[in-house]
Amino acid sequence: MAFKLVLNVLYTIGMVLCAFVAYQYFLAKNYPIMAGSIAAGVVVIVLKVRLLKDVKNSQKKV
User: What are the tens digits of pLDDT across the range 4-59?
Assistant: First the structure.
């Protein structure tokens, strides 16, 4: 369970980092890198949602 907590924190940091990078490259008008950052952010969000569902299901079984 501690591993999942650490993973959740890392996913949150990843989301914030992707949002920051996308914003900075939007201001610099470098759209391909901004799009890549947004795509990576979406992947991190999907992984975080899957992790949260897994934690929720494991708590229901106990």
Answer: 999 999 999 999 999 999 999 999 999 999 999 999 999 999 999 999 999 999 88
Which amino acid would we find at residue 40?
A
What is the Cα Rg of the chain in Å? 15
Q: Whole domain around residue 28: which residue ranges?
A: 2-61
On whether the CB atoms of residues 40 and 20 are closer than 8 A, the answer is no
Residue 25 near residue 34, CB atoms below 8 Å: yes
Number of domains comprising the chain: 1
**What is the spatial distance between Cα 28 and Cα 9, in angstroms, rounded to a whole number?**
29
Reported pTM: 0.89
